């Protein structure tokens, strides 16, 4: 019989956290670039491609967090019927969801992300581009974002705003940036955050 202990729970959480952070970095380094290649076959403008991928990342986290919130409410209601043990009902629910990731309907989230992108006024895309083209990236981001909500504390991304002051503690400048410009023209990849602290820097393009 597995017994619960704060020390063991902390070790599991730390190990899981490290794996998820590494996965976030891999998606940025590989799967983001794969999505760029797919989009460049239909869109010549690199800025538009990068904006689309950034919005896909933001929408994926939004959809996954909403799905997680709804599922956690349902799980807590079920566990509350016979919950016993030293951990709180909240922790028990997070542990249950972490061990039963198949409860997450990621396909539904992917559809929601694509629908949101189709209606996003910031994306000047040709009408023949179907955002399901980058569904692999969206699916991976949704699964990652969902798993990040099971951590204590959860991990999330920073929401950037075009025109904001460049923050070197939060972002790297893209290689085609104007390195003397103080403001962000657009975002390439979001920063990963934990309790307001930057865990992994994002990427932006700065221009005057």
Give an overview of the whole structure.
By secondary structure, this protein is mainly α. The chain is built from five helices and six strands; from the N terminus they run αααααββββββ. The protein has two domains: 7-155, no CATH class; 158-207, no CATH class. The chain is 51% helix and 11% strand. Strands 1-4-5 form a three-stranded antiparallel β-sheet. The chain has a three-stranded mixed β-sheet with strand order 2-6-3. α2 packs across α4 (106-118) and α4 packs across α5. The radius of gyration is 19 Å and the shape is globular. The chain starts with 5 loop residues before the first helix and ends with a strand. The model has no long low-confidence stretch (mean pLDDT 90).
Task: Compile the SSE list and pairings.
Layout: H1 6-40, H2 46-79, H3 89-99, H4 106-118, H5 135-148, E1 156-157, E2 171-173, E3 184-189, E4 192-194, E5 197-200, E6 202-206
Parallel strand pairs: 2-6
Antiparallel strand pairs: 1-4, 3-6, 4-5
Helix pairs in contact: 1-2, 1-5, 2-3, 2-4, 2-5, 4-5
Task: Please name the defining characteristics of this protein.
single chain; 208 residues; mainly alpha; 2 domains; three-stranded antiparallel beta sheet; three-stranded mixed beta sheet; 11% strand; lipid binding; mitochondrion; Mitochondria-eating protein; cytoplasm
């Amino acid at each position: 019989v597995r017994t619960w202990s704060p020390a063991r729970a902390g070790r599991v959480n730390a190990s899981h956290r490290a794996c998820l952070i590494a996965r976030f970095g891999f998606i940025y380094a590989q799967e983001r670039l794969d999505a760029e290649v797919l989009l460049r076959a239909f869109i010549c403008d690199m800025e538009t491609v990068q904006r689309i991928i950034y919005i896909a990342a933001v929408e994926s986290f939004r959809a996954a967090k909403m799905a997680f919130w709804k599922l956690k409410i349902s799980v807590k209601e079920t566990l509350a019927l016979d919950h016993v043990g030293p951990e709180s009902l909240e922790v028990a629910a997070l542990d249950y969801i972490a061990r039963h990731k198949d409860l997450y309907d990621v396909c539904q989230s992917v559809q929601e992300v694509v629908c949101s992108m189709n209606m996003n006024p910031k994306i000047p895309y040709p009408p023949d581009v179907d955002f399901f083209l980058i569904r692999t990236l969206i699916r991976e981001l949704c699964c990652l974002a969902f798993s990040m909500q099971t951590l204590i504390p959860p991990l999330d991304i920073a929401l950037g705003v075009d025109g904001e002051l460049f923050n070197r503690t939060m972002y790297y400048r893209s290689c085609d940036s104007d390195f003397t410009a103080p403001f962000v023209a657009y975002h390439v990849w979001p920063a990963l955050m934990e309790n307001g602290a930057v865990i992994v820097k994002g990427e932006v393009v700065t221009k005057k």
